[in-house]
């Protein structure tokens, strides 16, 4: 007689076995439909059982250690990315700027991303005052929440050990240690996508359209964090629900349609409000026409994938070389240079786990949870990783932090599955290959840095011996096998852990930070006007070489103290002077303001100075847009200038010869 699914041992469920007939693996009550009884059984081996002894203390240690790693000496990075720091400061002073994600408190132009991450940091700055700590602490706490959420998602079906291992692997990913201590949008993006994955897991347990709709809401807000990148997990989420939800095909399709509607509503409300804003709205940075949809489809959409056009998207194509950009569009991108240092430490092991996981559960029932896990996390990894590897437009290594939850989950779930099958040759070989993949590739990455030469050989030696031991050790020698697994975990995780700790111990600034001990301040990216405070990551209370310029702007007394070419330069001046500065041309040569618009601002007495010179336009060296050139040419011909701290400053209240500027 076949036992009900809730009486099947957890190890059997982990191996992918299930009753040959009768209720499905996800629902012991009725085949193909969620039941009303047996809630504990439906929740699976990880969540259905009570808490294991020591589980809560272990979880507390994991979260506390993650918080320490991400919060320790956090303010050493100062404003980190001054571009986003200026927008947070603007949002702390103006609710309008907060809502739009404007770069300046007078809302001339927005940043080139939607504002969800700025909302969180802006609220923190309003509550605690604007400082490096209030700016970056929300990012670090989002990292702690992401680790806890991943633990919960993996634990529900695969037990506490797998959950703890997944959480630790995420926390110790160098890209995570970098971005959860930085003010880019990626921290909130990763948290929201991980929350959405947890909600999909809950939805799969009993085909709940409510949990699935909540997942759609989370993805909608991921869109409001970094636009289309938040949608990269949708194919995996949709496929796993269509495949494994314990209800009929028609209901599965209807539930997915409802979740899609939730995504549209959660992502679209802000787009609609901005599009039909009744008053004067700021220019949408990164767009060619000031509209959100142009930003979605152009600069932050097809411009990123295909290169060329799309607002300023063509300014930095995938053909650029060096660690700041992607280099050639190929799968090797994820393993090379800075990309490899940030995300690839456990990537080979995750791929091994995915292959073995799908192979071992291939013939399992449709609703098998273990296979569903590999489809969920594996689909996330393959789709997102494929896009990052082959996109032709602007791509930076830190984007890959979005792969970290999937990599961590696959390694943990795959390791747990193979451990339960160690009585078979396939399980022992799989464990050996998993450890080998992590340690050998960790050795290769550590060899790139002279600091870790000794550690690299130790990792290789311990890892290879542990892998070989796992293959040949008899099953009855369980204690030896446990010792070998622990040795393999330590060896496989030593490289990523060392780089994560080194990354957290290093201050970072600029627009393209890097990981590891070699970063040493790791500015990188576009710095704005050289010499301006904040251009390379100003720390609180530091004095730049532009004290006279700062004092001049503080006494301007106009809506915008000055106008300057480029968002980075404007951000630097705003952070140093505490005044609103007009960012002509935005971040990516945006066609704003036109000459006529700027002349109207000057005639109304809303801009006091135009600051020029001192190191470029602040738009990444790509040169000013035609409209900005027209403005600066007109200003140079019309107004008196002086030199302040090495910069040419035009006084827009003093026409040449005392004539009328208009």
TrEMBL record:
Keywords: Cell membrane, Glycosyltransferase, Membrane, Transferase, Transmembrane, Transmembrane helix. Residues 556-637 form the Putative mannosyltransferase YkcA/B-like C-terminal domain. It comes from the Bacteria. The chain crosses the membrane at residues 163-181, 187-204, 256-277, 343-362, 374-391, 397-418, 425-446, 452-473, 480-502. It is found in: Cell membrane. The lineage of its organism: Bacteria, Bacillati, Actinomycetota, Actinomycetes, Kineosporiales. It comes from Kineococcus gynurae. PANTHER family: MANNOSYLTRANSFERASE YKCB-RELATED, UNDECAPRENYL PHOSPHATE-ALPHA-4-AMINO-4-DEOXY-L-ARABINOSE ARABINOSYL TRANSFERASE. It is a multi-pass membrane protein. This is Glycosyltransferase family 39 protein. Its main location: membrane. Residues 33-42 have a biased composition (Basic residues). Residues 12-23 have a biased composition (Low complexity). Residues 112-269 form the Glycosyltransferase RgtA/B/C/D-like domain. The keyword Lipid metabolism does not apply. Residues 12-51 are annotated as: Disordered.
């Amino acid at each position: 007689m076949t036992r009900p699914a809730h009486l099947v041992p957890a190890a059997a469920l982990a191996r992918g076995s299930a009753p040959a007939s009768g209720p499905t693996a996800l629902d012991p009550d009725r085949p193909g439909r969620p039941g009303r009884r047996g809630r504990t059984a439906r929740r699976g081996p990880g969540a259905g059982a009570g808490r294991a002894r020591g589980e809560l203390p272990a979880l507390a240690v994991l979260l506390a250690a993650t918080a320490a790693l991400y919060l320790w000496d956090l303010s050493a990075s100062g404003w980190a990315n001054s571009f986003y720091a200026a927008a947070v400061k603007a949002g702390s002073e103006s609710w309008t700027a907060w809502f739009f994600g404007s770069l300046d408190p007078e809302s001339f132009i927005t940043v080139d991303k939607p504002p969800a991450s700025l909302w969180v940091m802006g609220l923190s700055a309003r509550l605690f005052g604007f400082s490096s700590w209030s700016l970056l602490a929300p990012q670090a706490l989002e990292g702690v929440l992401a680790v806890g959420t991943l633990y919960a998602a993996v634990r529900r079906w695969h037990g506490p050990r797998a959950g703890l291992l997944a959480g630790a692997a995420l926390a110790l990913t160098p890209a995570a240690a970098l971005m959860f201590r930085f003010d880019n949008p990626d921290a909130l993006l990763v948290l929201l996508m991980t929350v959405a994955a947890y909600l999909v897991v809950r939805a799969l347990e009993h085909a709940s359209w409510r949990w699935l709709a909540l997942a759609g809401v989370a993805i909608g807000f991921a869109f409001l964090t970094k636009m289309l990148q938040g949608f990269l997990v949708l194919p995996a989420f949709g496929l796993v629900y269509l495949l494994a939800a314990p209800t009929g095909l028609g209901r599965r399709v209807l539930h997915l349609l409802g979740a899609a509607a939730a995504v549209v509503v959660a992502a679209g409300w802000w787009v609609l409000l901005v599009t039909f804003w009744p008053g004067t709205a700021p220019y949408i940075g990164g767009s060619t026409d000031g509209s959100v949809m142009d930003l979605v489809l152009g600069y932050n959409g097809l411009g990123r994938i295909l290169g060329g056009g799309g607002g300023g998207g063509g300014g930095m194509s995938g053909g650029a070389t060096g660690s700041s950009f992607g280099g050639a569009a190929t799968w090797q991108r994820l393993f090379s240079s800075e990309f490899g240092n940030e995300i690839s430490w456990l990537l080979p092991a995750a791929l091994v786990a995915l292959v073995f996981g799908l192979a071992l559960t291939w013939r399992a029932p449709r609703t098998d949870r273990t296979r569903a896990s590999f489809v969920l996390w594996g689909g996330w990894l393959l789709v997102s990783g494929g896009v990052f590897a082959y996109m032709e437009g602007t791509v930076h290594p830190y984007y890959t932090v979005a792969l970290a939850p999937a990599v961590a989950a696959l390694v943990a779930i795959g390791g747990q599955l193979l451990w339960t099958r160690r009585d078979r040759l396939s399980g022992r070989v799989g464990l050996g290959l998993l450890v080998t993949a992590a340690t050998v590739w960790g050795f290769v990455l550590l060899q790139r840095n002279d600091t870790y030469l000794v550690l690299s050989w130790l990792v290789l030696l311990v890892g290879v011996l542990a892998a070989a031991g796992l293959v040949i050790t008899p099953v009855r020698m369980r204690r030896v096998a446990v010792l070998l697994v622990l040795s393999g975990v330590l060896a496989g995780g030593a490289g990523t852990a060392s780089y994560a700790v080194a990354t957290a111990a290093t201050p970072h600034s600029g627009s393209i930070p890097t990981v590891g001990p070699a970063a040493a301040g790791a500015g990188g990216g576009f710095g704005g006007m050289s010499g301006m405070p904040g251009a390379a990551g100003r720390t609180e209370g530091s004095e730049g070489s532009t004290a006279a310029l700062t004092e001049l702007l503080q006494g301007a007394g106009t809506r915008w103290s000055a106008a300057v070419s480029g968002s980075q330069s404007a951000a630097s001046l705003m952070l140093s002077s505490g005044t609103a500065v007009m960012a002509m041309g935005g971040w990516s040569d945006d066609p704003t303001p036109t000459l006529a618009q700027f002349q109207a601002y000057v005639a109304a007495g809303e801009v006091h100075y135009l600051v020029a010179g001192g190191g470029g336009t602040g738009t990444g060296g790509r040169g000013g847009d035609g409209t900005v050139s027209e403005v600066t040419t007109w200003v140079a011909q019309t107004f008196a200038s002086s030199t302040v701290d090495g910069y040419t400053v035009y006084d827009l209240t003093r026409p040449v010869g005392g004539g009328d500027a208009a």
